[in-house]
Model the fold of this input.
Amino acid sequence: MSEHASWPFQEAQKVQLAFAGEGTRTPIVFETGFGPSGLPHVGTFAEVVRTSFIIQAFLQLTGRPGVLYAFCDDMDGLRRVPKNLPQPEMLAENLGRPISRIPDPFGCCSSFSGHMENKLKELLDRYQLGYQLKSSVEEYQKGVFNPALRLILEKLEEIKAVILPTLQEENQKDWSPFFPICENCGRLYTTRVLDYYPQKDSLKYVCDGTFGRPWKVEGCGHKDKISILDGKVKVGWKVDWAMRWFAYQVRYEMFGKDLIDSAKLSGKIVRLFGAEPPAGMTYEMFLSEAGKKISKSVGEGLAVEEWLRYAPLESMLFYLYQNPKKQRRLYFDVIPKSVDDYLAEVARYPALEETQVQDSVVWHLSKMTGKTPGYSGNINYTLVLHLIEGIGADDHDLLYDYLLRYDPKVAENRELVEQLVQSALNYFRDFIEPHKQYRTPDAGERELLQKFRDRLAALPDQDANQLQALVFDLARENGMEAAAFFKLIYQVLLGQDRGPRFGTFAKLVGKERILKMLEQKLAGATGS
Done:
C-alpha cells in the first residue's frame, strides 16, 4: 500500500487497485481528450501534464509503464465561431461540418482541426511529453471503432434506456447515438436518424434539422441510407466516450467537474459492452479573468506560448501540479506568484527527508524533463519586477548587475536569473507600466517626503531593517499611520498603491537611487 501523500501517487494507486487482476499486461492505457475547436490553452495542456505526472507515479509504484493516448475529436462539428480566429465568415459558412473538413482559417494546414492538432503536438513535443496522438477521423476510418459501433447498434435499446431519462421530453423522440454525416452538404448536426438496419450495419437519415445562433444553420433536406462503419457516422459524446474506453481498454482518464454526469452515463454504457470504466479523478475548472469557466471554442484562456513569454516553463508545470481539485483563476496575474512559489520549492528540495522527495513537484519535474531543477539564490520574480520599477531600466545587463550586487549567488544561477529578467521585463511592459498612475504630493506631503529624503541621506549604511524602520519612525513622529505613509511613498515613487517591503526594495535599488527618485518627484511637485 502506498504511503505517498501527493495526488499523482494517490491516483496511480487507484489504477493499481482497480485493475490488479489483469496480470502484467503492458502498457496500461491512460487517456486525455482534446476538442480541437479552438487553439489549445494552458487548461488543455494541463490534462496531458497532470496525467503524465500520474503515469510517472504509476511506474514508480508498480514498475509497469503507461502509455498516454491524447485523443483529438476532429470529427466533431463546429458549433460556433471562436472569437480569436481569422476568417469568421468562412467559419460561419462551415458551421455544423466536422472540423476536419473545414479549411484552416490561418491558411497553413490541411484543415481547421489539422491546425489545432499541430499546435497541440508542437506544445507536447517541445516539452518532451510522452504521448500517442489519436485522431478521431483516422481511428473511425481505419475501422478501429467498428466492433464497438456494431455493439452500439446491437444494444441500441439498452443505451436509450440509459440516455433518454436524462433528456428533455422534446429531445427524446429523435435521439440517436449516431450522427450521420450528410453526404450532400457534409453537416452532422442537421441530420436525423429515421431507421436502423442492424443486419447491414447501416441506418437511414434525413438532413432536415436546424441549430445555432447568431448564425442559423439549416439542413439541406437530403435523405439517404449510410453505413455506420469506417467514419460515415460519428457517435454522440457520451456514447463516443464509452466507445473509446472500450476500444482502447482505457484504465485511467481524468475529467472536469462539468463532465461528472457524462462520466457516470458513459460508465453505464461501457458496462453494457461488457467492460469496466476507467479509474479517474474529477478536477476543478480553470476560471477566466472574469471568474467564468474558460472556453477555447469561444477563444478564451491563457495560451501556453503567452505564459512562456512571461515565465519559465517549469513555473507553469508547477502551477498545473497544484491541487487539481481546487478551483483557480488562469490569467496573467497568477504568473508572478507561481514563479516565486516554484523557486521556493526548488530551493527547499535538497533538504527534504527521503520519504518526502517523491511527493515534491520537483521530483515529478525531474522525471518529466530528465534533470533535477536547482536554485539556491534569494532572487525571485517579484524582486526582479520591483527592481525594474525602481530603476526604470529597460536594460537587461544593467538589471542583472544590480541583482548580482544584491545577491552574489546570482552568478551560480546565471541562466535562470537572466531568464527571470527577460520574462519580468516582458511582464512589466505589458501589464504594469501601462497602468501606473503617479501621485503629485500636496504641500504637507512634500514636507514629509523632504524629511524622509533628508533622514534617508543621513543613514550611514544600507541595512534593510534600518531602511524599513525609518518609514515607521517618521510616520509615528508625524502622527500618521505607517500604512498611509507607505502608500504615499509607493504612489509618488512607483505610481501604485502597494509595493515591496521598503527596506528590501531600497537595499535592492540602492539608497542613492531612492534619493534621486525622491528629489525628482519633489522638484516636479514644486514646479521647478
In short: The chain has a mean pLDDT of 91. Residues 176 and 193 are 7 Å apart (CA to CA). Residues 42-62 form the longest helix (21 residues). The longest strand covers residues 28-34.
